[in-house]
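FAQ: What does a ligand-bound record look like?

Like this one, built around flavin-adenine dinucleotide:
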Amino acid sequence: MNDCLDEEKGTINGGEGGSVSIKQPNGTKTPSEAPNHATTRRHKTNLPTISHPSNALRFLHKIQAPHNASAVDSSPLQAELPLNIIVVGGGLGGLATSIALARRGHSVTVLEQAHELGEVGAGIQIPSNSSLLLERWGVGTFLAGKAVEPQGITIRRWQDGSKIGYTKLIPEFRENFGASYHVVHRAHFHEALYSRALQLGVDVRVDCRVVTYDDEDASVELANGTTLSADLIVAADGIKSAARQLVLGGRDQKPKPTGFAAYRATVDVEKILADPDVVWLLEKPSLDIWIGEDRHVMTYTIAAGKSFNMVLSHVDRSDPQTWDNKTALDDMRREFSGWDPQLTKIIYMINKTIKWPLCAGTPLPRWVAPSSKLLILGDAAHAMVPYMSQGAAMAVEDGAALAMVLNSINNRSSIPFALKVFEKERLQRTSQMQQASMANGTIWHFPDGPQQEARDEAMRPEVEGKHFLSSANQWSDPVTQWWAYGYDAEAAMKDACDAAVSDLISKAC
Ligand SMILES: Cc1cc2nc3c(=O)[nH]c(=O)nc-3n(C[C@H](O)[C@H](O)[C@H](O)COP(=O)(O)OP(=O)(O)OC[C@H]3O[C@@H](n4cnc5c(N)ncnc54)[C@H](O)[C@@H]3O)c2cc1C
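The answer part, i.e. the structure of the complex:
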């Protein structure tokens, strides 16, 4: 792990007698090394060492070393120990991970069981913590003209659509968190990742179903009998992951039904444009969520505004085996009857829908097999309800963190240590996001009454444009915002790595 002490370090020796001028991952230099116009014009103060959470320190960093965190980083620091890595699963998580690894110089093969690459469902949100990484990795180019940037997120009352909560996204999210909040068609997101992966030389193979993992050997056997070996196997094989059981030593910890289900659908925008009662929904790009007892409906436009995406969630404890997709459309309409007439008008414009059970996992004891040659990430490791719109974002972060931690080593014997650091950081981050997602289900689904009234009251200042220090709306609450959207998975992994090395050194001394 010596590299954690030098290459990507930057500050570890700072407290031990001096400023260290070390190259940053993006090839730029630290303030002490780079001629920085902002800092040469201003009085330069040594940044204090602090351990308490403080946005004031962010401010000091910003004025002393302004940089665009989401600028395309076309020459990332390369791994000193380039590895052959197999990623199982060509979903959003697998492809994002392949990009994160390939751009650092690893040789990556993605194995996808499907005959064709693709994504189920229509829209997906790409929150700032994910778009920061994607833009940095050069994926943004492939999303240009396809992703939509909503102006804000409006939480509405189930009965009449009146505003209960409001999160302003433009320009706050880009200004504060360094990257915009986007919504996009899943197919476009997937295509963008695929294109960037190919550009980076990732070998993406379809029709390659892994039937056996060998975690001691770092090999996989495909359904056609072929065996493929690597230095490391990354299983991004989704919620039904077969690798998870092996990582957990034979006792799988499967994600379980949460008692929530969602209807997923799209509406042709021409229909909405033709109806004067609801056309306002398309006036500007926005995210709207109607919330009520046991249910909520999330809407936004995708495909550069050509399609209107809807996710209609409700409490449903029945066995998914008993669900009949032929009745899904009627069931969905019945489920939301009596809701805001403008919303139900749009619900009646839906021609077809799929009902989806929402499952969630609980924090796993580990993500990395004892051999340190197989690990899981993405939904395989941290399935969650989609109420923070962060499932795929967490998978993108996983990929970023893995590539970063592998950059901190220069010999194979350090791989187990590096993967432990990765596992610890990602377990904490994703477990908290699982909880935050579940919390939205609680906050949004109160029946009308004192709790609902107190919740609406707690969000009122943001609707009225008043200053607030906290909110029951997690998108707006300043503490939740900085934690969720102000997280840079690469920087956080580097910090975790530095801390782990310092810890190791102090224990050895
Ligand atoms: C209703 C809903 C709305 C959501 N909205 C959002 C949102 O707005 N924002 C967000 O960030 N997330 C959202 N999510 C979550 C997001 O969709 C998932 O977290 C994400 O797609 C998981 O990606 P993954 O690559 O880990 O898994 P998957 O997408 O499940 O990919 C796994 C891949 O592995 C392949 N595979 C599996 N087994 C094998 C095998 N043995 N051999 C080879 N290949 C194999 C599969 O075919 C599949 O392609 C939402 C989820 C739902 C249900």
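Follow-up question: can I read anything off the structure? Yes, for example: The pocket of flavin-adenine dinucleotide is lined by residues 88-94, 111-114, 124-125, 209-210, 236-239, 242, 262, 264, 311, 356, 378-379, 386, 389-393, 395 (CB under 6 Å).
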